[in-house]
Amino acid sequence: MLKRRALLVAPGLSFFSGCNSTPKLKIGAKDNIESNLISEIVSQLLEKKLQARLERRFGVPGSAVLYQSLQSGDMDVYPEYSRIAFKVLLKLVDQLDDTLMLDVMQKGFEAQAQASCTPFLGFQNTHTAVVRADDFNFANISNLSQAAESKTGWRLGCTSDFAQSAEGYNELKFRYKIQESAGTRLEPINQLYFGLRENRIDILITGSTDPRLSDSRYRILEDDQRVFSPNRCTLVYSKAAVLKYPSILPVLQSLGGKFDQATIQQLNGEVEINKRGFAEVATEWLTKTGIA
Questions:
Q1: β-strands 24-30, 53-60 pairing
Q2: Residue 274 neighbours by CB under 8 Å, 6+ apart
Q3: What is the pLDDT of residue 20?
Q4: Distance separating alpha carbons of residues 115 and 130, to the nearest angstrom
Q5: Are the CB atoms for 28 and 66 separated by under 8 Å?
Q6: Is 62 strand, coil or helix?
Q7: Dihedral angle of Cα 265, 37, 131, 96, to the nearest 10 degrees
Q8: CATH 3.40.190.10 occupies which residues in the chain?
Q9: Spatial CB neighbours of 65, under 8 Å, sequence gap ≥ 6
Q10: For 196-241, how does the pLDDT look when each residue is reduced to its tens digit (9 = 90+)?
């Protein structure tokens, strides 16, 4: 009987030990610098902490594709933002309280995709209106409502992503009634900044984690009507992956609150402005913070 019991127990032990074996995961990222950078940091942390074997799927064109992959079981972890989660993926009403926002997102991901998300990473990337600091036309204008009082109008510039966003160009024009003196310029962000410096654009729309915002040549106009929602970053993960590899969850959660606005701006700047590689910047940050 003892021998028979040992034979029966052994497979069970083998099964449970397999649940904690070396993780094999697919890590995704959207086709922008910030998403790729966050995903590289996540990837290196998993590799260093758990010797995980990873397939990096970076540069994916948009949240919808990543989320569909997560739903189908073909993606395990990727960074996502609360505005996209509420307005595009879950189609829910925004929540202003961070705790409630996270709870609603977690329940929504559970219901739709058998997934969940980590505590927020600590920064948010909201739409932000920028003008030249030395532009005398804005000397007495500090917010978008005041800018909307102009009868002659402004020359606006934004990316195609902002133009197509559910909370982008149309919402800006509808809520603030900003007049335009010329057609809106739709260009990549680098070209938009060049146009702003060369006085071909008056107001540029970018994200609040744009590394150029720390440059004294530029000034932010306040979104005083709170048109643009809080847009906090989290890591969305497959619950099946966590069930199979429980050790990955505390590693993912350890990044909660580790990035403030200044940190993510600086990291983005290392890649976008200083032209350093994602892997190099990620390694340097992990080493400096002592997380890895």
A1: parallel
A2: none
A3: 58
A4: 36
A5: yes
A6: coil
A7: -80
A8: 21-124+230-289
A9: none
A10: 999 999 999 999 999 999 999 999 999 999 999 889 999 999 999 9
Is 175 in contact with 229 (CB distance < 8 Å)? no
Tokens standing for residue 204: 């540029």
**Terminal-residue alpha carbon distance, the chain:** 48
pTM: 0.88
Token pair in block for residue 161: 């992503």
Q: What are phi and psi of 117, to 5 degrees?
A: -145, 155
Alpha-carbon distance 190 to 269, whole Å?
Answer: 12
CATH 3.40.190.10 is right for the domain spanning 21-124+230-289: yes
Dihedrals phi, psi of 58, to nearest 5 degrees: -95, 160
Assign domain 127-221 one CATH number from 2.40.50.100, 3.40.190.120, 3.40.50.2000, 2.60.120.280.
Answer: 3.40.190.120
What lies within 8 Å, CB to CB, of 263 at 6+ separation is 122, 123
Residue type, 65: V
Cα dihedral angle (258, 55, 63, 279), rounded to 10 degrees? 50
